[in-house]
């Protein structure tokens, strides 16, 4: 029972609790529903607005409030009034996703899930006279003034702003600047916003709008970041700001005072900026903040910055824009945007790096800065500067270094008051290879290395006052370097005064107190120049090297322009030194004066020039007046200007010394004059040139006499000339005359053309010339042309409209009409057009034309061509096609008097095949020697195609030599075979085989004639002729060599050569002094040679060879010849040798030789020291790899050392022939200059028994003693220095006495050398006529021994006569030295000295002999057994001499071994001969056996 009661009680209690819970839930649900009813929520929202207005003194209103089911508030037409009762915030619709409980709980801590504003309009205004804007004042109202213990106002939520407007206006600014921001289409997404009193924290996800300022539109695409706004700070962290042209990444803080806010943005708002890399800002966006920034250039930048906009300090800044790069650890920008005119902008940087150019700076800098950049910076191009720089309104300063397109500059400069009329400046500049050409607008002055200090003011020429002191360590002038230049000067208001000093090895001069005054209308110039040394060749190639000028120049002139110039220029005491020659000019004067309107212009220097121009004239008009005068002789010439009130006469008397002093290379005869006069009113010119000769470079005028008188209507010009030569072309006996009538020029001339008188072509021409429009018309009256074998008449049947040539000056088209040549029965007619080598057409008709009459002998030279030609030829050619129509026969064709046969040539058009068929045939005595058949085909758009087969049959190939005669002559031989030519007409391909028979030729420059030893097959492929080990030999000595390689040709006129030669013994030079007086001889060589190049450009000969036995080369140091003038006529001013002929053997320009020669004692080299006296050196020796080079322009150089060995002589000519023996190991060294510029190091000795040495020394009797005269040659071969010394083979005391007496008196030494060489004795006070008799006997003995020596090549004899001594009482003596050269191994040299009387004990016979036997394997004198016997009387007193010379003999013998080596192993070990060396040795032995 109890249990039941307890159970009922529990269930009852549980039911009560359930009812209570249900009631509570009902109450809560009812309350929730009531609170979320729209009327309730609207009531709550209105209560909130009322609370805000009451709590914070704001004026916020909304026309309508809606609440959706979820309780979100929607405010319509929300407006916020500012303290001026202006609706500065308007929102069309504001939707708040609110937290209702937070509103109920605490209106000071509002949480909004989302706040969406549609079309809000915000006007931030700073009213006139106020410091704070309305928005800041509105925000400040939410700041709690309650004690800290009380809660502050908080608002937190999310904000979306759609299509809003925002403007910021400051009415305290000028009206044009009041609107700082005016935006449209403003959209904003803020996922998180938090307001605590007046502090606003915003997480900005997306913010974009379109704005406008200063009538310019801006687009902000995106702004994102974390923003904090308070009454003292606007912070933008993690900022990304992207406009249509800028992108900024980084962090930006704006700090300002609570009082001022943004009201003075440029001066009061403090920036704290950290811009990251990849940021960029455009000039357009900068212009939003800086109104005067008038450029849109984009600038990439990264930097840290701190300060206000007018005092901004940047660190680690990097800027780049349009080819400008700038970086600086520190950059301070002050007052760039200030509106205060008193304040000055400034830019200050330290250790900055700048790369820019003037154009780049002008592109991206604002105009208010760029216009103040000096334009002269343009000349520096792209510039790299590193250093310090500052600029403000008054001062520009820079200290650093700059590398630019014109060089390097280190500078410390200051420029102040640069905006004034007289800016001031000073500084110090160092330049390194600074190119001034961009400043001077001339390339004359090149890079300068200098140190310059300057100070002054003004850039205007009327105000400038500048002082400078410059030290130029290096200046480039016309490409030449000048060192050590110093100048000090002052330019003060159009008056320059200064001095100049130059201390350079090539130029040393001084200008003291020079001045140039241009303050008045007439400029005044005065200066004196002292030229200490001026190396002319260094500055101009017109003069020879080693040419030095010295002298004084005084200048005193006045002028307004060149027409009224008066004054003098005097050159005094001018010295021109060229090597050892000295030209002296005491005075050279240029003077101009004016008297009563007449001007007198004089140039005068004694024995140099006398020139005068006198009359009424303007100096500047003289060239144009002379041009007008000469224009009287030119058709269609119309003077551009008349000179009615001007006239003058002139005379020029020019001497050769003028051109010598000017180093112009002009040779002119004395008495050369140019005289004449000009009358401007009638435009009449009269001038006459008279000279005996005028030479300049390759031009030579002999006896020119030219007279022009434009007033003479019948003969306006006439003249004569004995000869006119240009290069190798010679025009002789020239006469010409003519006149102009009715705008046509009529002229007659006769002359002879050709180098050799018997081969000249004589012309007697009559022609006229006129002009119609753009065409020059040349016509011919009957004229005669006399060739060497016939006379031709040009236009014999004269008609005015025939034999005419037209030349169009616009199209360059030459047209020939009815040009006719006739000689007896021979006739040639020519017509056609010529535009270029690829565009022409010609018609030629031949009637019984004798080839011997029509081809000048000057072209054929030593060749001849004969035959009778008949027929016609029509050739039409363009760049795309060739159309030949030929019907031509040449009967009895001969070349060099050898019959070739009858030649027929035909070209016809085949319409069926659309081809031009070609056929040529050469028949000789019924046999076909040559056949050519084929065709030319023209196809549209393609070059003309050729297909021809050539079949020679024992055809004479000598005519091919005409194309090679510049290098080869005597070309001969026959060819048989078959050659097929195909391909483009301009570059055909040759294929086939030729067999060459009896082919030979002469290499002109080498003088050697070669011939193939047997018939050879010549393979032809692709236009190449292949030589495969073809053997050739010289026709003189039959030495042989082998050739292989290629000849290549396209048209048989231009040949490419690539040939290699190898030989063990070949004659490679065979010339005489007549062929080439610079070097000549016979040279045999072994080695390898090659010839490469083309006949139209350059032929290159290279060789590595060894000179063999029998070679003999002469180098003539007295030759005035160079490589381009070998054997040229030496014209002398006193007499012109017109009958002399040039030798044809000379290296053609374009031929180059590069040879490396090794020589030994078996070859002989002759060096001619003086061709007139006969002094020469004959040497045998060794040379390893001696280099010889002939350049393509004709310059010869040599390099290497020739060491003299063996039997070598110096033939010294002093009235009689005296042979000096050259001491072995003497050397001749070439160091890369000309053959005659060799360095000599030669010692030569001449021995003579002298009997009066004791008499000369004044000592006791000394027997006849062998005296040695030494000639020591040094210096250059072309200008050797010869020193002499004397030694004796005697006692020591005699040597010492002689040395003491001679070495103290150089003149005495030279006298005694001459006496010993000429008379065989010393000169002394007791000398009588016997010494002269001795010389006479000596000459007779020399002549006798010369006869004997010419009889036999085995035996030779040398004889000398020695006069006796009166004091020593010794008799005259004769010494005989016979030499027997039995063969190339055994030689015997004897010596017999016999007295003619027995006057004393010293008069004894003496004997001597020496036997040499060469036991070396190759007979090269490397191992010799020698035995000798010689008198031993030298140094003995006469009392001990034996009466028999045989008792006074000494005997001896020995073995001489010679070997050259490069290292010790070559001496110890045995070097094995190569196969080539063995072959060379055998060949050499055979050659020597033939000679024996």
Structural commentary:
This protein has 1492 residues and is mainly beta. Among the domains are: 36-231, no CATH class; 244-373, no CATH class; 388-489, no CATH class; 494-588, no CATH class; 1250-1460, no CATH class. It is 13% helix and 56% strand. It is built from 20 helices and 80 strands. The protein starts with a helix and ends with a helix. Residues 22-32, 1120-1149, 1327-1333, 1433-1445 and 1464-1472 have low confidence and may be disordered.
Secondary-structure topology with pairs:
Layout: H1 2-35, H2 38-56, E1 59-67, E2 73-81, E3 87-98, H3 100-105, E4 109-126, H4 134-140, E5 154-170, E6 179-196, E7 199-204, E8 206-213, E9 216-229, E10 233-243, E11 247-255, H5 265-268, E12 270-282, H6 283-289, E13 298-308, E14 311-321, E15 324-334, E16 346-356, H7 358-364, H8 367-370, E17 383-392, E18 395-404, E19 407-416, E20 424-435, H9 437-440, E21 445-457, E22 465-477, E23 480-492, E24 495-504, E25 507-517, E26 523-535, H10 536-539, E27 547-559, E28 566-578, E29 581-595, E30 598-605, E31 609-616, H11 622-631, E32 647-654, H12 656-662, E33 666-668, E34 672-679, E35 684-690, E36 693-696, E37 699-702, E38 705-709, E39 717-726, E40 729-741, E41 744-753, E42 761-772, E43 775-787, E44 790-794, E45 804-808, E46 813-823, E47 826-836, E48 839-850, H13 851-854, H14 857-860, E49 865-877, E50 882-895, E51 898-910, E52 915-924, E53 927-937, E54 945-952, E55 955-956, E56 968-984, E57 988-1003, E58 1008-1012, E59 1016-1021, E60 1024-1034, E61 1040-1049, E62 1055-1071, E63 1079-1094, E64 1099-1107, E65 1112-1116, E66 1151-1159, ...
Parallel strand pairs: 4-5, 64-66, 65-67
Antiparallel strand pairs: 1-2, 2-3, 3-4, 5-6, 6-7, 6-8, 7-9, 8-9, 9-10, 10-11, 11-12, 12-13, 13-14, 14-15, 15-16, 16-17, 17-18, 18-19, 19-20, 20-21, 21-22, 22-23, 23-24, 24-25, 25-26, 26-27, 27-28, 28-29, 29-30, 30-31, 31-32, 32-34, 33-36, 34-35, 35-38, 36-37, 37-39, 38-39, 39-40, 40-41, ...
């Amino acid at each position: 029972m109890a249990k039941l009661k307890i159970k009922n009680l529990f269930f009852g209690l549980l039911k009560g609790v359930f009812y209570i819970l249900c009631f509570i839930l009902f109450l809560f649900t009812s309350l929730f529903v009531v609170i979320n009813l729209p009327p309730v929520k609207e009531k709550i929202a209105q209560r909130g607005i009322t609370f805000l207005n009451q709590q914070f003194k704001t004026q916020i209103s909304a026309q309508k409030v809606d609440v959706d089911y979820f309780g979100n508030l929607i405010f319509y037409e929300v407006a916020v009034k500012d303290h001026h009762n202006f609706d500065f915030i308007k929102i069309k619709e504001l939707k708040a996703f609110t937290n209702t409980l937070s509103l109920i709980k605490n209106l000071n801590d509002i949480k909004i899930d989302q706040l969406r504003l549609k079309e809000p309009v915000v006007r931030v205004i700073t009213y006139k006279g106020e410091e704070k804007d309305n928005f800041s004042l509105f925000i400040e109202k939410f700041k709690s003034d309650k004690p800290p213990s009380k809660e502050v106002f908080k608002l937190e939520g999310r904000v979306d702003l759609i299509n809003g407007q925002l403007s910021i206006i400051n009415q305290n600014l000028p009206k044009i600047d009041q609107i700082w921001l005016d935006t449209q289409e403003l959209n904003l997404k803020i996922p998180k916003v938090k307001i605590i009193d007046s502090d606003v924290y915003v997480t900005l996800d997306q913010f974009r709008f379109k704005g406008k300022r200063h009538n310019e539109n801006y687009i902000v695409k995106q702004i994102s970041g974390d923003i904090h706004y308070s009454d003292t700070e606007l912070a933008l962290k993690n900022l990304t700001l992207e406009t249509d042209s800028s992108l900024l990444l980084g962090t930006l803080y704006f700090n300002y005072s609570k009082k001022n806010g943004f009201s003075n943005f440029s001066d009061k708002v403090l920036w704290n900026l950290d811009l990251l890399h990849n940021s960029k800002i455009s000039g357009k966006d900068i212009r939003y903040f800086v109104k005067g920034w008038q450029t849109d250039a984009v600038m990439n930048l990264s930097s840290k910055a701190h300060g206000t906009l007018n005092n901004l300090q940047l660190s680690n800044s990097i800027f780049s824009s349009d080819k400008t790069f700038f970086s600086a650890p520190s950059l301070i920008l002050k007052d760039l945007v200030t509106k205060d005119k008193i304040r000055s902008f400034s830019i200050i940087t330290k250790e900055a790096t700048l790369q820019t150019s003037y154009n780049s700076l002008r592109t991206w800098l604002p105009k208010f800065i760029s216009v103040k950049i000096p334009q002269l910076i343009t000349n520096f191009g792209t510039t790299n500067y590193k250093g310090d720089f500052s600029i403000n309104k008054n001062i520009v300063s820079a200290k650093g270094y700059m590398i630019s397109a014109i060089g390097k500059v280190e500078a410390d400069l200051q420029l102040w008051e640069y905006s004034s009329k007289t800016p001031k400046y000073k500084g110090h500049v160092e330049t390194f290879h600074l190119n001034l050409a961009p400043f001077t607008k001339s390339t004359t002055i090149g890079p300068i290395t200098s140190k310059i200090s300057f100070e002054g003011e003004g850039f205007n020429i009327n105000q400038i006052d500048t002082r400078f002191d410059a030290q130029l360590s290096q200046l480039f002038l016309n490409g030449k370097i000048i060192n050590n230049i110093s100048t000090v000067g002052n330019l003060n208001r159009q008056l320059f005064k200064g001095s100049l000093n130059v201390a350079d090895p090539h130029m040393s001069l001084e200008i003291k107190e020079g001045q140039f005054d241009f303050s008045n209308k007439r400029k005044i110039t005065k200066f004196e120049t002292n030229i200490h040394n001026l190396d002319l060749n260094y500055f101009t190639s017109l003069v020879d090297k080693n040419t030095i000028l010295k002298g004084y120049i005084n200048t005193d002139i006045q002028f307004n322009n060149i027409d009224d110039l008066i004054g003098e220029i005097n050159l005094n005491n001018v010295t021109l030194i060229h090597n050892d020659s000295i030209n002296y000019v005491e005075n050279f004067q240029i003077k101009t004066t004016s008297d009563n309107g007449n001007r007198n212009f004089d140039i005068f220097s004694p024995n140099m020039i006398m020139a005068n121009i006198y009359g009424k004239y303007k100096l500047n008009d003289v060239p144009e007046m002379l041009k007008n005068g000469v224009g009287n002789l030119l058709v269609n010439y119309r003077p551009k200007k008349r000179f009615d009130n001007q006239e003058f006469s002139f005379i020029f008397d020019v001497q050769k010394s003028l051109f010598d002093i000017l180093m112009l290379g002009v040779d002119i005869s004395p008495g050369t004059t140019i005289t004449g006069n000009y009358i401007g009113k009638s435009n009449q010119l009269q001038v006459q040139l008279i000279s005996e000769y005028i030479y300049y470079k390759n031009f030579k005028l002999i006896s020119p006499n030219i007279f022009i008188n434009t007033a003479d209507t019948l003969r306006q010009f006439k003249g004569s000339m004995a000869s006119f030569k240009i290069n190798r072309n010679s025009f002789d006996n020239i006469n010409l005359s003519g006149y102009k009538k009715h705008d046509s020029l009529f002229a007659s001339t006769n002359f002879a053309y050709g180098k050799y008188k018997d081969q000249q072509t004589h012309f007697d021409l009559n022609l006229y010339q006129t002009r119609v429009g753009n065409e020059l018309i040349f016509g011919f009256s009957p004229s005669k042309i006399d060739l060497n074998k016939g006379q031709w008449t040009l236009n014999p049947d004269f008609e005015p409209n025939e034999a005419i040539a037209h030349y169009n000056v616009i199209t360059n088209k030459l047209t020939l009409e009815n040009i006719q040549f006739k000689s007896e029965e021979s006739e040639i007619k020519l017509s056609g057009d010529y535009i270029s080598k690829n565009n022409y057409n010609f018609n030629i008709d031949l009637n019984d034309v004798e080839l011997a009459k029509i081809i000048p002998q000057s072209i054929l030279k030593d060749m001849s061509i004969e035959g009778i030609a008949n027929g016609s030829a029509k050739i039409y050619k363009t760049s795309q096609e060739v159309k030949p129509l030929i019907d031509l026969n040449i009967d009895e064709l001969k070349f060099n008097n050898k019959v070739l046969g009858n030649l027929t040539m035909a070209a016809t058009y085949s319409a069926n095949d659309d081809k031009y068929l070609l056929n040529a045939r050469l028949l000789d005595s019924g046999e076909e020697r040559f056949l050519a058949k084929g065709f030319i085909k023209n196809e549209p758009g393609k070059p003309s195609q050729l297909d021809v087969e050539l079949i020679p049959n024992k055809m004479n190939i000598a005519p091919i030599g005409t194309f090679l005669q510049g290098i080869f002559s005597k070309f001969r031989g026959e060819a048989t075979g078959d050659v097929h030519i195909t391909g483009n007409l301009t570059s055909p391909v040759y294929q086939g085989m030729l067999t060459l028979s009896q082919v030979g030729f002469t290499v002109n420059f080498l003088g050697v004639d070669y011939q193939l030893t047997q018939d050879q097959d010549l393979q032809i492929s692709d236009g190449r002729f292949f030589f495969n080990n073809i053997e050739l030999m010289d026709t003189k000595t039959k030495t042989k060599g082998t050739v292989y390689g290629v000849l290549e040709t396209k048209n048989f006129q231009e040949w490419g050569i690539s040939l290699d030669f190898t030989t063990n013994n070949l004659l490679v030079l065979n010339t005489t002094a007549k062929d080439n007086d610079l070097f000549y001889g016979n040279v045999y060589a072994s080695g390898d040679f090659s010839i490469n190049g083309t006949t139209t450009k350059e032929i290159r000969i290279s060789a590595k060879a060894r000179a063999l036995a029998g070679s003999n080369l002469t180098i003539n140091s007295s030759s005035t010849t160079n490589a381009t003038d070998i054997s040229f006529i030496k014209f002398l001013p006193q007499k012109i040798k017109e009958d002399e002929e040039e030798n044809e053997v000379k290296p053609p320009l374009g031929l180059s030789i590069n040879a490396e020669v090794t020589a030994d004692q078996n070859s002989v080299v002759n060096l001619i020291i003086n061709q007139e006296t006969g002094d020469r050196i004959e040497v045998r020796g060794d040379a390893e790899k001696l280099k010889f080079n002939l350049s393509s322009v004709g310059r010869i150089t040599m390099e290497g050392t020739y060491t003299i060995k063996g039997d070598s002589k110096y033939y010294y000519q002093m009235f009689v022939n005296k042979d000096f023996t050259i001491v072995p190991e003497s050397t001749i060294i070439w160091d890369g200059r000309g053959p005659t510029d060799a360095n000599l190091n030669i010692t030569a000795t001449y021995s003579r028994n002298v009997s009066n040495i004791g008499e000369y020394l004044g000592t006791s009797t000394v027997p006849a003693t062998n005296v040695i005269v030494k000639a020591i040659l040094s210096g250059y071969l072309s200008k050797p220095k010869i020193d002499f010394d004397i030694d004796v083979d005697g006692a020591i005391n005699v040597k010492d006495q002689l040395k003491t007496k001679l070495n103290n008196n150089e003149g005495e030494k030279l006298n005694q050398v001459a006496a010993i060489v000429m008379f065989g004795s010393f000169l002394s006070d007791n000398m009588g006529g016997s010494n002269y008799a001795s010389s006479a006997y000596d000459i007779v003995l020399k002549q006798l021994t010369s006869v004997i020596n010419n009889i036999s090549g085995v035996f030779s004899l040398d004889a000398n006569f020695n006069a006796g001594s009166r004091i020593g009482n010794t008799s005259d003596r004769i010494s005989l030295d016979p030499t027997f050269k039995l063969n190339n191994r055994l030689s015997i040299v004897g010596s017999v000295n016999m007295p003619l009387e027995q006057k004393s004990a010293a008069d004894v016979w003496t004997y001597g002999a020496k036997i040499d036997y060469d036991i070396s394997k190759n007979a090269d004198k490397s191992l010799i057994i020698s035995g000798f016997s010689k008198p031993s009387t030298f140094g003995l007193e006469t009392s001990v001499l034996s009466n028999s010379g045989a008792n006074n003999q000494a005997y001896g013998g020995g073995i001489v071994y010679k070997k050259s080596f490069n290292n010790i192993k070559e001496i110890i070990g045995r070097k094995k001969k190569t196969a080539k060396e063995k072959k060379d040795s055998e060949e050499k032995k055979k050659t020597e056996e033939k000679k024996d």
